[in-house]
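Escalated from tier 1: S-adenosylmethionine holo job.
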Amino acid sequence: METQITQEDLNQIEAGIRNKYSKVADSPEGQFKYPIGRAGLEALKYDAALIDKLPDEVAASYCGVGNPFSLGAIRRGDWVLDIGCGAGVDTILAAMMTGPEGKAVGVDIVPEMLQRAEANLRMVDLHHVIFQSATGEHLPFPDDHFDVVISNGVINMIPDKDAALSESLRVLKTGGRLMIADQVMAGSIQKNLKDRLSNWFQ
Ligand SMILES: C[S@@+](CC[C@H](N)C(=O)[O-])C[C@H]1O[C@@H](n2cnc3c(N)ncnc32)[C@H](O)[C@@H]1O
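Tier 2 regenerated the structure:
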């Protein structure tokens, strides 16, 4: 039975993520079992006053598995990093919380998602948001840079979870907050790696 992950497996995972999320960038509808769009934001109890400010087209692109903001407050002036920002709804909401004296940066590996995030950003009046291409395993930021790191439904897809978590901790300031919403598998997992790869990003 194969248990060691090979470079070929890693390439297959990355290609699958790019393939799936390039479609999600058009619309998350029909792609996931978990809540999406404005109804998803409401079901996950995001701050109603903030989601009311999102244009419908922006809210429609939301596809998180949980609410990272339920884990703690974002303060005015905070610098926030969103790992795997997708279409950027969580990043934009974080920027509303930091106010213009803060900053929100979203990174993702799928160009179509980053394009959708930029399009979403043009629909809201915020000038302290940056979207850029980067992977959670190698963050292009100095040590001790952010007050808060958030992510929503991303770490489960990253093969090297140790690298993703240690990179998050590296870029966080001392006393910074890591607020992750994600999904974990309960019960037994498929023992054969090839079987696991086939449903890595469902
Ligand atoms: C569930 S979506 C995030 C949704 C987003 N937070 C929102 O507000 O709608 C997951 C994102 O993780 C990204 N992703 C997957 N693997 C990644 C990696 N290694 N590094 C960075 N982003 C990654 C995917 O491209 C996808 O856009």
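Residues 17, 21, 62-64, 83-87, 89-90, 107-110, 113, 135-137, 152-154, 157-158 surround S-adenosylmethionine (CB under 6 Å).
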